Amino acid sequence: MTSDLRLLKVYALIMTLFAGTLSIAAFRQAAQKTKFTEIDVERINIVEPDGKLRMVISNRPRSIGPIYKGKPFGYAGGTRPGIIFFNDEGTENGGLTFTGRRRDDGSYSSSVGMSFDQFNQDETLTLRYSDENGRKTTGINIAERDERDIYDLIVQRDSINKIADSVTRTAALQRLFGPRNGVPLAASRVYLGRDRSRSAVLNLSDPSGRTRLRLRVDSLGNASLEFLDEKGVVTARLPGP
Questions:
Q1: What Rg do the C-alpha atoms of the chain give, in angstroms?
Q2: What is the pLDDT of residues 162-173, one digit of tens each?
Q3: Which of 192, 190, 215 is nearest to 205 (CA)?
Q4: Is the same domain home to 222 and 111?
Q5: Of the candidate ranges 19-28, 32-41, 71-80, 149-158, the one whose mean pLDDT is the lowest
Q6: Residues 85 and 164 in one domain
Q7: Residue in 53, 125, 135 with CA at minimum distance from that of residue 96
Q8: Contact at 8 Å (CB) between 227 and 233?
Q9: pTM of the entire structure?
């Protein structure tokens, strides 16, 4: 009888431990993966195991400002509702933002933009829609950008902005953001879209951003192909005059 009682106690202990192990495993599993039917939230931060941001989804007030290797710079958040992407180093490298509202006077403005940034720089590929009370553009833009680090540029800009003399300050900013060896900091190379004149256009530009070839179908359905020089003067056109 004593032996049977001892076995029963051992059995009870083993089952208790087993049940406890299952409970802990279930709790851990639930903690790792939770299913929601619906959730209301003002901001979601997607992070890597080391805490680096990978993506931020937010409303306007809680939207994030520019981040470079985990450090804020440039300007404060609160202006970009949507999704912001970050690279392996925790630096912003693109996003999806959207706005749209009707004003008290009945006019409206609306925009949607998806952008992809050059490494440690700014937008190099964009898909953008903008509508200012009927003045509408929609298009894809591919840009050429200088290799200068955007964080260094902004730090230098902020330092220059502290210069009291406005003439000296303006000249320093022009030197900082102006062309280097004739090449601008940023230049559109390819634009495909619908412009404010309701024309469908394809612009191909040189490294300085000057359109050299334009394919257009205007709002009346007339098609043309234009070749332009570096001053923007049309040198040849099909069909001809």
A1: 29
A2: 999 999 999 999
A3: 190
A4: yes
A5: 19-28
A6: no
A7: 125
A8: no
A9: 0.80
